[in-house]
Amino acid sequence: MQELSGPHLESGFGLILATVPSGFLLFLVVVLLTSIAIWMVVFCKAGFSKWWGWGLLMHVPLFSLIGLYFLLFREWPIQREVKDLRREP
């Protein structure tokens, strides 16, 4: 069996890459990209920009809470558009 040692394994990330099966890492990447795409669609359907950063920020613990409050309590652009269309004669 090959010994897990070397300068590239001194950091924690190198050790993780060496010990976790590559299939599992691929699975995590696919789940992360799918989740980012889902959050992008949610923000786009709410009428916000298609900026992919919203999808990324929803995976950072503090920013995800801020993002959820942003979605819940801010008037969505689509709501403003409907309100403006209803005002017109």
Please give a structural write-up.
It contains 5 helices and no strands. The protein has 89 residues and is an all-alpha fold. The model has no long low-confidence stretch (mean pLDDT 77). It has one domain (7-87).
Helix-strand layout with pairing:
Blueprint: H1 12-19, H2 22-45, H3 53-57, H4 61-73, H5 77-87
Short description:
This protein has helices at residues 12-19, 22-45, 53-57, 61-73, 77-87.
Q: What is the count of structural domains? A: 1
Helix content percent band: 55-70%
Largest sheet: number of strands, sense, barrel closure: none
What is the distance, rounded to the nearest whole angstrom, between the alpha carbons of the first and last residues?
79 Å
Instruction: List the secondary-structure elements in sequence, H or E.
Output: HHHHH
Number of helices: 5
Strand-pairing-aware structural class: mainly alpha
Inertia-based shape: elongated
What ranges have pLDDT less than 50 throughout 5 or more consecutive residues? none
How large is the radius of gyration?
A: 21 Å
Q: Quick check: average pLDDT? A: 77
